[in-house]
Amino acid sequence: MRSGIRILMATLLIIALCSPVPAPAQKMKKALNSKAGKTAFEPAVLWREPTDISRRNLFYGQGGKEHAPQGKFSFLEEDPKGSNPKFEIQDDQGVKWKVKLGPEAQSETAATRLVWAVGYFTDEDYYLPELRVEGMKKLRRGQKFVTRDGIVHGARLERHIKGEKKAGQWSWFDDRLAGTREMNGLKVMMALINNWDLKQSNNEVYEEQGAERRYVIADLGATFGKTGNTMTRSRNSLNDYLKSKFIDRVKPQQVDFVLRSRPFFLFAFNPRYYIERTRMERIVKEIPRSDARWIGSLLARLSDQQIADAFRAAGYSPQEVNAFTGKVRERIAELNKL
Question: In whole angstroms, what is the distance from residue 141 CA to residue 84 CA?
Fold first, then answer.
């Protein structure tokens, strides 16, 4: 009986893998063109050299202290999208913010700072242990994080940049990016922070009027835990992160990093999901050792204080900050030994 089920599953998987699936790069180009109309798409910027890396303020991140949330906030509406509770608010200066609740609020805040520190673009995220929101409505998701008097606990605030628009999505498998040192460095960063949710819908192309287009990973919440399938993975888990492995295999010219994403075999009944998740594991494989050392050399220029500030900004306890900082520093050393 079991052998029959396994044969059936294998047959379904083979059919799924052989079925035509639109290439991510083609899907990306189509999405971008639909946004831009007849205007030819100009390649966006993925990375900018961080000449001030040793002086970057990882407590405030890309937005800096001047963009940090302050003043009074009023409730706008709940956001039903995604797997985490979210809602929109506005401060008394007219700036809009997207609030995310749950375990990803902390991990995403810390992740954005480390990714930005070495030259990549991120959202302007801030973490507030407590947030008072006037006119707070009852949430369909995440109400357990809100008290009766409108105090929200453990909130990540993502600043809405005036004039910034989404111009489409980009893929980890886009031919225009494949093989570049900058893309390989970003892949290493995803392995370093244990990001197991590398689906294309998390990757946005942002544009501002009169400014360059930027490749951005718009969701870095599924980090600092353990990679794996739906039953084994975690995020924002110090113990899991400390126990996790970083480098899988070192070859003469390349290195494979660890990313477990293949779903439980029963998910083969959902071919699209199974293929997408299984394919993610390839993203951090066969990275040139020279490119891994390059991103490691940038990370090595960060001080322990800067790395600690990234986790301090996310509201972790002093003990957690020290442990996360030590693990990140350990992984940086592994890169520089390649």
Answer: 8
CA 104 to chain centre: 10
Integer angstrom CA distances of residue 31 from 41, 150, 200, 201, 217: 11, 39, 12, 11, 16
Give me 189's structure tokens. 């960063």
Among 204, 230, 194, CA closest to 110? 194
What is the rounded distance in angstroms from the CA atom of residue 189 to the CA atom of residue 169? 19
pLDDT in tens, 37-93: 334 445 679 999 999 999 999 999 999 999 999 999 999 999 998 889 999 999 999
Whether the Cβ atoms of residue 118 and residue 299 lie closer than 8 Å to each other: yes
Q: If you ran DSSP here, which 8-state letter would residue 82 be given?
A: S
Give pLDDT, residue 176.
Answer: 83
Cα separation, 224 vs 103, whole angstroms: 11
Q: Assign 282 to helix, strand or coil.
A: helix
Please tell me the predicted confidence (pLDDT) of residue 259: 95
Distance CA 152, CA 285 (A): 40
Lowest mean pLDDT among 79-88, 99-108, 180-189, 313-322: 79-88
Most confident stretch, 160-174, 211-225, 234-248: 234-248
Residue 37 backbone phi and psi in degrees, to 5: 70, -130
Q: Are the CB atoms for 229 and 212 separated by under 8 Å?
A: no
Residue type, 135: G
pLDDT in tens, 294-318: 999 999 999 999 999 999 999 999 9
Nearest to 225 by CA among 199, 198, 195: 195
CB atoms < 10 A from the CB of 301, how many? 15
What residues does 254 pair with on adjacent strands?
288
Task: Name the token pair of 36.
Answer: 């831009």
CA–CA gap between residue 224 and residue 283 (Å, rounded):
18
d(CA 251, CA 246) in angstroms, rounded, equals: 15
Helix-strand-coil split of the chain, %, nearest 5: 40, 20, 40
